[in-house]
Amino acid sequence: xxxxxxxxxxxxxxxxxxxxxxxxxxxxxxxxxxxxxxxxxxxxxxxxxxxxxxxxxxxxxxxxxxxxxxxxxxxxxxxxxxxxxxxxxxxxxxxxxxxxxxxxxxxxxxxxxxxxxxxxxxxxxxxxxxxxxxxxxxxxxxxxxxxxxxxxxxxxxxxxxxxxxxxxxxxxxxxxxxxxxxxxxxxxxxxxxxxxxxxxxxxxxxxxxxxxxxxxxxxxxxxxxxxxxxxxxxxxxxxxxxxxxxxxxxxxxxxxxxxxxxxxxxxxxxxxxxxxxxxxxxxxxxxxxxxxxxxxxxxxxxxxxxxxxxxxxxxxxx
Length: 318
Description:
By secondary structure, this protein is an all-beta fold. It has one helix at about 15-20, and strands at about 30-35, 40-45, 115-120, 130-135, 145, 165, 175-180, 180, 185-190, 195-200, 205-210, 220-225, 230-235, 260, 275-280, 295-300, 310-315.
């Protein structure tokens, strides 16, 4: 029988390694977060409900600075504010020199009818700059389905100002999330979310919070424990895996409704980490492996759960 430790060691891997796995254009890395509306309350470490791996690794807690806060940015096709000048359409494109215009997602300082957004200026897979792009005539709002161009790293999508299209699938369909507001030093979110700033990437966006028992994430994302709450991440199970009892390598390496648990908390797990179904402590036993003795075990035992998460459990041996 393996010995139980603290709650913060339950999840299999450090968020520094996996939090943004699968997010278009992001290579992962340590993060800085601030809770919704908590002006100036940045955290210097990966303060999650469970960040330690079975090997004991955790996020380094390195923080991003305000460097890159203006980034180099935008495309040709910028517009001139001609509102009130003889009825000329203020959003009509005007002739440009093709120069890239610099912008800041916190300030949203692009010309009228454009928005500031992150993109990869070298055609690579990581956001490394900002550009002004036209706002779609019928823009999508936060958490609504959206469409991107070019794998989600060109900056072109149909989300409204202050939003970007995240977790696009093979058909370039994802959902809109908000950029963080405030400043690089004091970022907050305008929606129920946690502000995430990847190391070495000049971007600050709001990853939505969620209810693990409802699995209410947009876009087919999975709800996993992160930053002292539960956040929506793109599920990345290995082919043929991701279900209860399967081996896993990161918190989002299981299917929605299933999370990757440190093997120390699953005595019948034959790997360092295994997938375990989430369950409601107040409901009858719904665990897939209940015939093998699994039952709903409290996820939080040694620390205070986030509000509304008191009944969250996972399927394992008592």
